[in-house]
Write a structure and sequence with these properties.
homodimer, Pnp Oxidase, Chain A, seven-stranded antiparallel sheet, 3 helices
Amino acid sequence: MPEQINPNAVRVLSYGMYVVSSKLGEKLNGQIANTVFQTTADPQQLSVCINHQNLTWEYIDKSGYFGVSVLGQDATMEFIGLFGFKSGRNVDKLSRVKYKIGAAGLPLVLDHALSVLEAKVVGSLDMGTHTLFVGQVVAAEVLKTGRPMTYDFYHRELKGKAPKTAPTYVADSSKEIKM
Amino acid sequence: MPEQINPNAVRVLSYGMYVVSSKLGEKLNGQIANTVFQTTADPQQLSVCINHQNLTWEYIDKSGYFGVSVLGQDATMEFIGLFGFKSGRNVDKLSRVKYKIGAAGLPLVLDHALSVLEAKVVGSLDMGTHTLFVGQVVAAEVLKTGRPMTYDFYHRELKGKAPKTAPTYVADSSKEIKM
């Protein structure tokens, strides 16, 4: 079978922008993710894809829980930079933002969040560089109304880029790159 | 742990709109899906979540391949209705639209498509009502430029709803429902 892959074909897939959080013992962390999806409605399950290199991956893998903050369009580049381009191994990210401990015990970032969810991992799939975690929602709260930030909005309006550990990362060889 | 789940919390998650297609022998079919996402970049892998009741699920499960057409904002309610609210068990959907057979042998719907991709299933996860299929991209083509249709655009602009077999289906008890 001939491989005929135009790498631009996937650039029109749509995503939101989220902070995925977790904890291990007393240690808290969170990171930007675009691949958060509801994958079943009954029960309500979420999927999220996290790079093996990320500290949040280790916390989710070991603790079996993750939190999600759905970001609104008011999220700033500074905020996204903190959670998307810095590692929790070097920076205590949560200390720099407003967060709370949710009903299931997870840290939930409140800044710029429209809603927050907590999920218990019920399945996972190793995808090579990333793990896809499936979590059953155990708590979910709406914080405010507003337009969610999409990955397209992030690139188009904030001129943002993808970190190397993103599922959608493409080497930045062009100024027109859109990940 | 107390379960405190506000069902509206997931309604601000973002998705695109896609036709996921497959074939079994000479039989071709496709359906609307919103849960298509890129889950790794190297190799390029896509995930898609399909309801067990759908004919496309059977074709993907048995054939090990699926195609994706990324829909633009010009997709009509009539088109979405054909692929989203009718079953291939009753209607030969592909006969009613423009499609082609791609490099990997999959039927690819061309109407309203910005790009088309073909993927070989390399993993799957049973999620109860749905299966999450992971496919390695084996062919991908850009057809035209344009703004992708998002699930939000579909609800907001086209006033569309979700079929009962969608991962994001919620019983329509309110006129303000947004799935």
